[in-house]
Design brief:
Length: about 650
């Protein structure tokens, strides 16, 4: 069966207000405070571990010829104002209002734009493909650098332990990925409180050391950052590439907003996360000003000697939580990409009976682990890996800003000059960050870029190939209306029960139906032509999910619509058909699927390499029976060979 075509839904015409968010944010169970605490563990896990390495890496670029006080203050100022401009202004106070029925992330923006522009929104799909592919580059690097940086804290306590950093990191990562199949529901209840404790400790550590050199408070002035950039010229661009490590979790903040809601995430950032991060960077700067030798590892050297080992343990737990957030984000993004038709169907397992968003994707899980372990073995330290970090995230931020511009202009219906005035400053800043990170390409940055190019190529190949298959099927098959007229004259043999034929195009006769008539010469007493649509909203109302259209006395067309965040459970949706008058017994119902195999065609519009890649992707697709949650003992698959 072909992948379902995307079905557009209504988009929001105005920006949100304080009283009633026009974008349709979904209500969340629990108090705002409780949700804010929970969001700390999931949403801010990644950005919360950046103090382990961001300040150290940024300052190392200026340390070769001796540090000056202005350089230390300038780097801290860059860190704090980057957090302010990128995270606070862009994501927390602006982009989180550009949600799609409460869901955020690059693909949610794509869905909004395509819903507003219709057929003209093809370029938004390209931007979304690029943004999503870059997220996967980030998903591979984040667990590797986070866990490595935490385990390296043991070098401060016992330098002889350095030989065991990589093996211990590998063991932690393998255990983390091994438990993914169990589900994160129970573990997640601990994530929020533990990470909240982590941020409190970050703030207290910084507060303890600000008095080491109170002059560090000049870093709170934007002039300190501007003076540093003006005085250091090209070197400032190199430093900015490392400063960006402080905001690498900002995209996850936006992508995960559907789990907790806008207000709890904003509350957590403004009252806990941002103050704690700012204090910690100020403390690290004051420590280096008073003790320049602390530049070796300023974060762990801030920790008092008696509690250093317990703090390293807490840091390791915090990095594991940060890694978990990226892993679940990769699962969610993959599910969205499948539903939007960007990649083949992938096996997914629900790990919770009550939380729809808790899923486990075995293939993605183990592919991520292999990539992460390869990075750990290849780079062997967080400092070396920092060179590869940042490019994919900055690229994804640029994509989200471009899509946000269209949302402000076309979805919120604001004048184009207002949209430019709002988005241009963010986009300009992110282009500077992207330029700075591109300087790392030959030092390791080629790895996430290569991964992103591979993912983007696969996505575009799947989209293009699916379109060609759809066009060919529509061109070669007979219209369903013509088939029904012929059946009315031929009177084939009837058998009891109901047959359900799944198809992506209800206007043409399903191939499985034609093959069944050709080879079995029978027709069921009741026949359902079923099409599964994916809406541009994350979830679709149950009372609007099913649309029924009688075609004849024994044929009926059923259209099912699911949100791109939902699992298309066909049998459960069919229960609604029973309530609307279609009588059938699931145990007397057969589901007919068309299993296609492809071979390359010399006349294919796609290049030979892309043609073969598409065929390989079709072989990787998960079984439609599992994907649509069909009862396996009621499924009949009929084969068909096509050239593409």
């Amino acid at each position: 069966m072909n992948d379902a075509k995307t079905k557009a839904s209504k988009t929001n015409a105005h920006p949100p207000s304080a009283d009633e968010p026009v974008t349709g944010e979904q209500p969340h169970a629990g108090s705002t405070f409780g949700l804010a605490v929970g969001s700390v563990g999931v949403v801010y896990g990644d950005i919360g571990t950046s103090p382990l390495y961001a300040f150290r890496e940024a300052l190392h670029h200026t340390a070769s010829d001796g540090l000056t006080r202005a350089e230390v203050t300038g780097v801290v100022s860059l860190l704090i104002w980057t957090l302010t401009l990128v995270v606070t202004l862009k994501y927390v106070l602006f982009l989180m209002y550009a949600d799609n029925k409460g869901e955020g992330g690059t693909l949610s923006l794509v869905a909004l734009v395509r819903g507003a522009l219709g057929r003209r929104g093809g370029f938004a799909l390209i931007i979304g493909i690029l943004g999503a592919s870059m997220f996967f580059g980030d998903a591979v690097i984040t667990p590797a650098i986070s866990v490595l940086s935490a385990v390296e804290g043991l070098n401060v306590v016992a330098p002889a332990f350095s030989h065991y950093v990589v093996p211990l990191t590998i063991v932690i990562l393998i255990l983390l990925f091994a438990i993914q199949s169990l589900g994160t529901g129970r573990v997640a209840t601990w994530f929020g409180p533990i990470t909240a404790v982590w941020f409190i400790c970050l703030g207290l550590l910084g507060l303890m050391h600000v008095n080491d050199d109170p002059a560090i408070l000049y870093a709170l002035l934007p002039t300190s950052a501007l003076s540093f950039m003006i005085s250091h010229g090209f070197l400032a661009l190199v430093v900015i590439g490392s400063v960006f490590l402080a905001v690498t979790g900002a995209e996850a903040l936006y992508a995960d907003m559907g789990h907790f809601g806008r207000r709890p995430i904003q509350l957590a950032w403004l009252t806990l996360v941002f103050p704690a991060l700012a204090l910690n960077y100020l403390g690290q700067g004051a420590l280096v000003l008073s003790h320049p030798a602390a530049l070796e590892n300023p974060f762990f050297l801030m920790v008092p000697q008696p509690v250093r080992i317990p703090f390293i343990l807490l840091a390791t737990i915090a990095t594991i939580i940060a890694s978990q957030a990226v892993i679940t984000g990769a699962f969610s993004l993959t599910q969205q990409a499948v539903q939007l038709g960007l990649i083949p169907r992938i096996e997914s397992r629900h790990t919770s009976e009550t939380q729809a968003g808790q899923i486990y994707l075995p293939r993605i899980n183990w592919m991520l682990l292999i990539g992460i372990l390869a990075l750990v073995v290849f780079f062997r330290s967080s400092s070396a890996l920092a060179s590869a970090y940042g490019i994919s995230v900055t690229g994804e931020m640029v994509m989200s800003s471009m899509l946000a511009f269209i949302v402000v202009w076309k979805v919120w219906k604001w004048p184009i000059w207002v949209a430019v005035a709002i988005v241009a400053p963010f986009l300009s800043m992110e282009i500077v960050f992207l330029s700075a990170n591109l300087l790392k390409v030959f030092d390791g940055g080629y790895l996430p870029l290569t991964l992103a190019v591979c993912v983007a190529t696969c996505m575009w190949t799947w989209v293009r190939g699916s379109e060609l298959v759809y066009e060919k099927s529509h061109r070669e098959n007979i219209p369903l209306s013509d088939l029904l007229k012929m059946l009315g004259k031929s009177h084939p043999v009837r058998v009891n029960g109901t047959a359900v034929f799944l198809t992506s195009d209800p206007d043409i006769a399903p191939s499985a139906l034609l093959h069944n008539l050709k080879h079995n010469n029978v027709l069921h007493a009741k026949n359902i032509i079923m099409t599964v649509h994916v809406a541009t909203t994350p979830r679709y109302p149950d009372d609007q999910r099913v649309k029924i259209e009688p075609l004849s006395d024994d044929f009926v067309l059923v259209e099912l619509t699911f949100g791109y965040m939902e699992t298309p459970n066909v049998p459960r949706a069919l229960a609604e058909c029973r309530r609307q008058g279609i009588k059938f017994d699931i145990m007397a119902t057969s589901f007919f699927l068309n299993r296609r195999s492809f071979k390359p065609s010399p006349q294919s519009p796609m290049p030979v390499w892309q043609n073969r890649l598409f065929i390989s992707l079709t072989r990787m697709a998960a079984n439609a029976t599992d994907f649509y949650r069909l009862p396996s003992n009621r499924v009949v698959e009929l084969g068909q060979q096509l050239t593409v």
